[in-house]
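quick one: flavin-adenine dinucleotide bound model?
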Amino acid sequence: MKAIIIGAGIGGMCAAIALKRCGIDSVVFEAVKEIKPVGAAISIWPNGVKCLNYLGMKDALRAIGGPMHYMAYKDYQSAETLTQFSLEPLVQDSGERPYPVARAELQAMLLDNWGRDKVQFGKRVSRVEQQSDSVTAYFDDGTTASGDLLIACDGTHSVIRQSVLGHAAERRYAGYVNWNGLVEIDESLAAADHWTTFVGEGKRVSLMPIAGNRFYFFFDVPLPKGLAEDRRSLRDDLSRYFSGWAAPVQHLIAQLNPETTNRVEIHDIEPFARLVHGRVALLGDAAHSTTPDIGQGGCAAMEDAVVLAMALQSNSLSIEDSLLRYQLKRADRVKELVLKARKRCDVTHAKDPAVTTEWYAGLRQENGDRIISGMCETIQGGPLA
Ligand code: FAD
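yep, here:
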């Protein structure tokens, strides 16, 4: 059996590694000549960590993961701690620790595991066509590639998605802008082993430790889509949006490098039930695009890859039926993750200000139990729980 994989992001690389693990050959095609991940870092929660362990990257992941042992919420003006607790109960419950990692290091780890020279870069697929016993990808450069099945890991703007769904899926603006980047760890910003988040006015400023003595930081602000803001105005924009916020937030704005800070308008896509059509399967953001509010988009792609490989291991099912089995195992799970993130997004970003005010008040009563139990519930839904 030979699989064609389109896209060499988290989803494509995990799919290729997972299929190899169960004896299926893949060829990976990637549109760009060199992958430059959009975004500075991501948190890999225990459900994603278990998938990477299963795919043979246990030690490599630990080497790039940050020492995140506690979680804290702070008041935006006074920096008073609203709640602070250990993440150890999460580790005990799920059996793994979460690892925040730099995206570039995660991407390098995946590429190295698979083999960089085995990815065909600069190959942008424009369409796919299915025959009775094969599937063909057509590339912008006029070439084609055929295989027994095709896994579309071409991200949220997937060009293959429409041929699976039979209709286009519109991206939905979630109502906020996220800026993210990396800075050196400095305890005047936050404690080095904490995931610290300042909250107020429907906005967030968050810092998470990654390896190499760095914080992954992000700022969220509810804003209209399409504002004329870029790197040149970045520091002034953040200073304006976070005027009156506590000293650590002002330090962070002063310390960040606008040249390496990303500005992203956050979107998701209404979940859909169909993830496969014949010999073609969607995986990762092509199959489910979520807001990053519960940090699960990449973890879900890792889960998809593991489940897909498990489904394709069957000796008794045809390729089409194995892919339907993948869909059966994944569609509800990914729908739940997208909707859970959307709900969290609305609470955090003051879609209804009264609900957000209530959430801030609730944080003062929080001892960690409720937050950790919500995280554990999400994690337990993974395939290797
Ligand atoms: P992508 O990473 O988009 O990769 C798609 C690949 O396909 C790209 O390399 C692209 O060049 C290639 N491609 C596209 N079109 C074509 C084509 N036509 N032909 C060939 N190749 C093509 N997830 C988490 O788990 N934890 C987090 O903490 C987290 N934080 C996030 C924070 C932000 C601000 C954002 C925006 C997302 C976050 N995510 C997080 C989500 C995560 O980044 C995505 O879910 C993940 O990157 C999806 O991987 P993917 O491989 O499906 O898609």
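The longest helix spans residues 319-348.
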